[in-house]
Amino acid sequence: MTDKNKNKKYIHGGEIYGKDIELDLSVNLNPLGPPECVMTAVERAGDKLINYPEYDSLSLRRKAAGCYGVKPGEIVCGNGASELIAALGRLFRGGKVLIPVPCFTGYERGFKESRIIYHELRMKDRFGITEEIIKMVHGSKPEAVILGNPTNPSGVTAERDLLIELIITAGKTGTVVIVDESFIELCDKGEGASLVDVIKYYDNLIVLRSVTKAYAVPGLRLGFAICSNDAIRKRLASELPEWNVSVFAGEAGKAIFKDPDRVRYLERAGDVIKDCRKRLRMNLETAGIESVPGECCYLLLHTDRKLKEEMGERKILIRQCGDMRGLGKNWYRIAVNEASASIVF
Known about the structure:
The protein is of the alpha/beta class. It is built from 12 helices and 13 strands.
């Protein structure tokens, strides 16, 4: 099934401006908030306001490379993962692109100039990625496929062996596989679900990562792509504007990647997410609201109640998912944290 959707209105979480909102549960961030090293780095970066940012973010890429065991030259930095998605969309403009749905609406928006093939995920699989996607790639031979791991909005992680089989099949069909790991640090399997460690083996693989979600700094905007294919990486970089990473984001990123407490910080966040998710699901079940058993810092809900309106009356914002292909107005996504786990629905 194809559809260009050029005139579609895209909705995102975090739309709090101009609204009477006291609690925003429409965005999904590390429940611990920004680590102390970030706040210090942002304050320090104020002294650099009169300077342009580093043109190619080399010092930032070096720190990220050391953190993830890749080469600095294999990293492309962006003003959030969303900027990189849009740039990838321009890279594959006019080509055939496979997108599993429901998904982050930014994929459709980023690739709106492509000939999109939609692969509909099933509720019985928790809207997770299955071997069916391999059959789709083999049969349709798209130029690229983009998917989230964990999926958004259902928060389900795919098996690594399945994704590697997908990459191998895609290599035979000339397909580039883009795996968006924006929430990987905040899912139960953590880095164990990541494909960063196999980047060097597959030149048709691009992995996207987001500092925004893992370290609760959406206002800074920082993400990066990792790819071992020199030609693809250079084309991607050429689609980005100069100085696209601000001095604030750059200093914060470097502080994070060299922080000795980084791993423990993410482990603590994982413990909090698991505890809060369990309590949130119990509260939802008590209220008769169905939730998809996700593994991340958000839950996908289904109810006939007008939940967004109900929450809005309590000055709480949640994400209605009616604009996500494959869902409807009775589907909602809610962040997992101490505040959501304490709500009586």
